[in-house]
Amino acid sequence: MLLCVAAVAPVLAQDQARPVDTSTRAVLAAATSYLKAYQEALRFVIADEQAVQEVFDDRDRRRARRETSGDFFLAWVPADGGWLSVRDITTVDGKPVEAGADLRGLLNRGSMASIGRAMADRNARYNIGVVTRNFNEPMFALMILDAKHQSRFRFERKSVGRGDAGTSVTLTFTERDRPTLVQAASGGPVFTSGELVLDAETGRLQWSLVNMKDGPTAAQLTTTFTENEKLKLWLPATMQERYSHSSPRLKETVVVESTYTNYRRFEVTARIR
Fold this sequence. Notes:
By secondary structure, the chain is α+β, with helices and mostly antiparallel strands. 22% of the residues lie in helices and 46% in strands. The protein contains six helices and 13 strands. The chain has helices spanning 2-16, 24-41, 103-107, 112-123, 140-145, 147-150; strands at residues 45-56, 62-77, 82-92, 95-96, 153-163, 166-175, 182-183, 189-190, 192-199, 205-214, 217-228, 233-246, 251-265. The chain has an eleven-stranded antiparallel beta sheet. It has a two-stranded antiparallel ribbon with strand order 7-8. The longest helix has 18 residues, at 24-41. It is globular and about 55 Å long. The termini are far apart.
């Protein structure tokens, strides 16, 4: 009798386990729920950002290289329904840059949107290469998963992976409708496409690849998320950027590798608006 019970028990346990729904609709629904909680939890976070930029010519010869480091401030702005990312570059190629406005002081005094624009303009001085860029944010793919943007994209399930960490689903996405998340310098639309790897059960974003093209210039952003034990959140660990420009007068490729470490919370007294 005891042998009979032991043999049946595993079968009963399997019957009671609910399989994870890996359909595209279910995974997107899980991602929507995940983002709501994630946005509330991720407020006023700062990390250390180190970035290496390299420029290559049409023969793949490196023409320029630059290293930058500084603070990377991150917050969800409910009023705008988007992520606010502010870089405060403090060193370039190992040397301190000219002191500008104190980021922490600005965050306690002014409008977050105006601060973001001012800091973006300041930091653009340290970009190398012919490609102008201000959309290089590691949180970019999260906007694609936001409920208010999902309808503008077509999602398809590419693959399902199962392992000790759980079940992951790779979704492809293609932006179909305007207004697009990215606009060209001329004001025209720039449509995005790519892949997202999500935990099927929780909807948590683990990895993203975003492609975009504007005339002779193509861009690719790849971000890897890992769990931060201190903050109990999955946060960007690395971001790779690749920009290719090909015109009759110039062919150039810019490659950027950024890493994010030492995440910590930062309290501000000003309201995000």
